Amino acid sequence: MKQVLFIIFCFCVTIVNVNAQKDSLYNPLDEVVVQANKRLLMNSKSLKVVNLNDSIIVNNLESFTTLLRFNTPIYLREHGVGGTSSASFRGTSSSNTAVMWNGININSINNGQTGFNSLTVGLYDELNVRSGGGSIEFGSGAIGGTIHLNDVLEFKEDKVFTNQIVSTVGSFTSINSLYKLKYATEKYAANFGVSYSKSDNDYPFLDSEFRNSNGAFENYTISFSNAYKFTDALVLQFFTTYYFGDRLFSGELPNPTSANDKYQDINQRNLLSLEYKKSNWRLTGRLGYLFQKYKYFGDKNLDVFNFGSSDRIYSDVTVDFSFTSINATLTSNTRFESIFGRTDQIQERNRREFSQSFIFNHKVKRAFSYDIKVRKDYNSDFDVPLSYAFGFKLTPFNKFFFRANTSRNYRVPTYNDLFWPGQGNENLIPETSLQGEFGVGYKSKRLFVDVAYFNINAKDKIIWTPNGDPTRPGVWVPINLDETTNQGIELAVNYNQSIFDKVDANVSLNYTYVDAINEAIGTSIPFVPKHIGNSNIGLSYDRFSMFYQLLFNDKVYTTESNHEDYVVDRFSVSNIGGNYDLIKTEEQNLSIGFKVNNVLNTKYSVVQNRPMPGINYNLNINYKF
């Protein structure tokens, strides 16, 4: 740790010689973009990638969970507003969703997940969501899909210094604020951001005498990234972020007032990257250090807690070679990481992982491109099978395209799966999946449509069940299921239209149908809705804009037997909002906005016995200068 901090300190002291003057605003000419995850689009020709831009983010400032729930095909399980929140694609589990920070998988070694209420909306420069398998590029857990959080650094020919302040206030004494700074010259670029969120979160339960009395939360995040260009061929980058969260855990019906527990967590991530380009070659070396820690208090009033933490050292070397004569690229990635994990009930364990992968991208002609991917992992705890993928995209006509891919992906058991006292299962083996996808689409200036059929066949899938071990009846334990099959349809539509040359309209739609079956007993896998969908409609005129959001979530079984007495009912929820630009010039933009969540005051739950809020409000101000 000391060595890492020393490297960070030396790097910052050496290159940060910034006279922060507002000499110039954004200049689109002669810019050189240093993008944290350059390879995502290049390696996703046969996959669907959704970009969540600023106009989407500004309408979903409450939480990262809300942003994903209303704008992507992902199913979010949230244990009450502000509580534990996990994401899953295409009927897979939350540990089959890989979350990438500047190209590094940040899922916890302890539970294999990322909590989405511990991520801050607006601090990241680029948010991408990719459906489909990705273990070749992103490692364990990238089975259902991946979520990418990227910091983007830009060099400018003229000096640029910009600021952004966003602040929201809302029902239940909720406050969200953030500040972002960007600085760039021809040789140096830097981003800085800080956010703070707090809420009493004591919303009333509809048709009940109770409130969410133990749901308060508070958190803050600090992020910094910078890059220095020694020459056009040599660029050094550094990224760091720190998060601290303090939240109470909401109670469950029928007696939510009995809840008295609290949870605190810290996440710190650091990444140093050096990139060298020459002729057809590009060499990138990265070194990272990631730290996670949590404390769980059974009684929030006592300083008695359970804890867990992990330290992770990450390194990789990527070599890209371009065959310009045939318009192809070969990429080699060599990766090593060492992870130390521990809790107050699990002694420290060290897992070491080494992997080698190769990706070949080839654009044969303008109408056809394909890629071949292969990866072999060596894990100190498990024998991980070979991963591979093949995909292509064909554009036989001007605006129509076809895409298809197949891949083999994997997830290794987490420390909680293996060693949790009284519940772990040390006999678990890695789960693997063989999956395929075929999609048809249309893309023009105004209309984008993508519809795909997918099939995921998983072997030795890891799930937690209360009946998994006959020697421990009623105790939730993880087991390997022999085989599961997920198949379905995923649809995405986006349409833009100008009305009377004055009003701009935008309509977007995401819909997923999935049939997820445990082949051993022929029942639906728990916690998988068959139908989920969301839609956004936006209208803008001059300085004013309005939007409407709709979310539909089908019923969810919570038991392997699919008993109808233990389901979370289907629901639909609507939000409305608007924004007005008080100032709109090249130099600055000041807007105010409002949003009404659950405008129809619908009674619903995402997790059984944990009601969500009725109608609630927030106001926001967004100032860029």
TrEMBL record:
Query: Which PROSITE patterns does the record cross-reference, listed alphabetically?
Result: TONB_DEPENDENT_REC_3 (PS52016)
Q: Domain TonB-dependent receptor-like beta-barrel, which positions? A: 178-599
Q: How does it sit in the membrane?
A: Multi-pass membrane protein
What is the first-listed, main subcellular location in coarse terms? membrane
Domain of life of the native organism: Bacteria
| Identification of the protein by name | TonB-dependent receptor
Please report the organism this UniProt entry assigns to the protein.
Answer: Tenacibaculum platacis
Query: According to its UniProt record, where is this protein located?
Result: Cell outer membrane
Q: What are the alphabetically sorted keywords of the record? A: Cell outer membrane, Membrane, Receptor, Signal, TonB box, Transmembrane, Transmembrane beta strand, Transport
Keyword Signal, does the record have it? yes
Q: Which residues form the TonB-dependent receptor plug domain?
A: 61-146
Q: Which InterPro entries match?
A: Beta-barrel_TonB, Beta-barrel_TonB_sf, Plug_dom, Plug_dom_sf, TonB-dep_rcpt-like
Whether Signal counts among this entry's keywords is yes
Recorded family membership = Belongs to the TonB-dependent receptor family.
**Pfam families from the entry?**
Plug, TonB_dep_Rec_b-barrel
